[in-house]
Amino acid sequence: MHQVVKQVHNILEFEKPIIELENKITEFNNFAKENNVDLDNEIDILYKKLETMKKEVYEKLNPSEKVKIARLQERPTSLDYINKLISDFIEFHGDRLYGDDSSIVGGIGKFEGIPVTVIGHQKGKDTKENIKRNFGMPHPEGYRKALRLMKQAEKFKRPIITFIDTPGAYCGLGAEERGQGEAIAVNLIEMSKLRTPIIAIVIGEGGSGGALAIGVADRVAMLENSIYSVISPEGLSSILWKDSSLAQKAADIMKLTAQDVLSLNIIDGIIKESLGGAHKDVDFTAYNIKEYLLNELKLIMKLDTLELLDKRYEKVRRIGVWG
């Protein structure tokens, strides 16, 4: 007999009918088991209705709903994907200038037998870890740590994989005093001329310069329900309409979904998630990331260094060109 496993996660408004039906199926299963009653046909009907409902809801999400999925605390983080995709991973710490920033993780390992350097924004799974990770908002030392690892990758001719998931760079006083803008700018310049392949994947939020600082790459892809924007919907609505409560309206006009960003030729591809979001089936999403990385690495690792740099330069210069 079918079994519904209840998932413990934040229930979004548009998910409520789905959750209610899943709970109803669970009740039917428990009743049938406890009373030794055959309800297979009834449960099959409910399952078919559930699958139809999921497709109707999850395949027609509007931008503001995708923003909510991209920000879910249950959404897989950089370390979740690193643990599933990178073998023999060794994490490195510190920028050799100020300290370590745990909102950026990075190190070396092997991806399908290929030695690689992996860097990603890291959010927490609960309040305590989010405080430790500064909610995925890096300080300048985080970006300098990332650059240190990227320069090391260039030295040893290792491809670089980055996972982007940040609301933006931290804008606190200490971060500004330590050169937040300069750290981001240097990363943009240095990444544009690194003599090794780079692939960047937006796995959640791609927020402004905080995302770009590890996002200059030969290939940039986004997960299906991730977002990429110059500012948050709340920030845009506060500036334009002096009202942060209009964030949903802002999200609808910002062109921040993966589908919008692909149509603007800012990214190179969209990686499919499990139905309802990557948190519903991490293995499915990780497998699709693996396939994308394998296919693209094969192509860009064949290029000689000058061709690689020329193509990356052309790619960056095309962003924002109108018409």
Helix content: 40-55%
Average pLDDT, rounded to a whole number, is: 90
What is the general shape?
A: globular
**Structure classification:** alpha/beta
Strand content: 15-25%
InterPro entries: Acetyl_CoA_COase_a_su, COA_CT_C
Subcellular location: Cytoplasm
Subunit structure: Acetyl-CoA carboxylase is a heterohexamer composed of biotin carboxyl carrier protein (AccB), biotin carboxylase (AccC) and two subunits each of ACCase subunit alpha (AccA) and ACCase subunit beta (AccD).
Keywords: ATP-binding, Cytoplasm, Fatty acid biosynthesis, Fatty acid metabolism, Ligase, Lipid biosynthesis, Lipid metabolism, Nucleotide-binding, Transferase
Give an overview of the whole structure:
Strands 1, 2, 3, 4, 5, 6, 7 and 8 form an 8-stranded mixed sheet that branches. The protein starts with 15 loop residues before the first helix and ends in a 5-residue tail after the last helix. The chain is of the alpha/beta class. 48% of the residues lie in helices and 15% in strands. The chain is built from 14 helices and 8 strands.
